[in-house]
Amino acid sequence: PERRAMAMAFHRTGGSIGDSISPLVMGLLLGGFALWGMEWGGLYWQSLALILVVPVLLGAVSILVFYRGLTGSGGRSPSLKAYLSSARPLLTNSTVMGMVLLSGVRSMAHSGLNIFLVIYMSEDLGYSDFKIGFHISLLTLFGIISGPAMGWVSDRIGRRPVLFLGLTAMAILIFAMLPFGSGWSLTIILAFLGVFLYSINPVMMAAALDATKKGVEGSGVALMFTGAAVFGAFSPVIAGWLRESRFGMDGVFYYSAIIVAAIAVASLFLPLKKLADKPASTT
Q1: How far apart are CA 5 and CA 195, in angstroms?
Q2: I want to staple 146 with a disulfide (CB 3.0 to 4.6 A). Which of 128, 192, 195, 274 is the partner?
Q3: How far apart are CA 83 and CA 87, in angstroms?
Q4: pLDDT of 193-214, one tens digit each?
Q5: What's the pTM value of the predicted model, to 2 decimals?
């Protein structure tokens, strides 16, 4: 419990490695290559989508095989009635719901920005598939190192300073895309943005779990992901409308930066409490 953020960050590191490698590989497979007299035109996206079924199935089978005996921390499953009774207080827990809000709004900025960055680099900047993949990989590459580091710091000095500084840095970097949205300056900004974009999530998750009773941590995690999914689902629609309007891509940058700046300020005032490691009632 005293190292929650770092543990969550190390968990996220595996995803960051995959998120960093995959855009490069996808860009190469889609765009093909010409090297030393050899030339390959790449795959159609339909073929590539079919190939991606393989790692997903391997992952599913691996979980089934290696974690088949995994149970909850109590070693037995509570009844459905007892579980719902113990999980329901999370909905009125100000710290948990505050982190759901922060995580959800951060997801809004990420989902809107991420989708239209690809379109922006393709249509406005004329980048190749591989070059687009390279820039998208930067959004997670440095998070492989910064995630555990930010988790370690938050476990020692507290969640609030790390949340505020991380979200503030994100807002500043997104704003910086307005005057520096192309060339090497864009590359550098995306690399620095990658230090914070995913790395702040484990700190939010740890803050929510700090206020969650033992035995219902899974519900707390599920609530965090649900909030992010709900908030993030409609954000691309808003970002798309802004891009198609007279604001263009600047509208997407303003939209993403402003909402991140808003939750950076909110992180200073949201209640953060830490419960003793006391089990929830599951009898």
Answers
A1: 16
A2: 195
A3: 6
A4: 999 988 899 999 999 988 888 7
A5: 0.83
